[in-house]
Write a structure and sequence with these properties.
By secondary structure, the protein is α+β, with helices and mostly antiparallel strands. Helices cover about 30% and strands about 20% of the residues. The chain is built from 1 helix and 3 strands; from the N terminus they run βββα. The radius of gyration is 13 Å and the shape is elongated.
């Protein structure tokens, strides 16, 4: 999402409250994690919970 001072600001893929963490504690999402996030978002949209 961004950065503030020494922290990286993160937010869940489907939205929600952001949080701060140190850059050394972050990593890229795995292909499996990205697929799971996209599937969850598509399911929520099909139920009318998200746009």
């Amino acid at each position: 999402m961004g950065h503030e001072g020494p922290y990286v600001q993160l937010r869940p893929p489907g939205g929600g409250r952001e949080w701060d963490c140190l850059p050394a504690d972050t990593r890229a999402a795995t292909p499996r994690e990205r697929l799971a996030a996209r599937t969850a978002l598509a399911n929520a949209r099909s139920r009318g919970e998200r746009r």
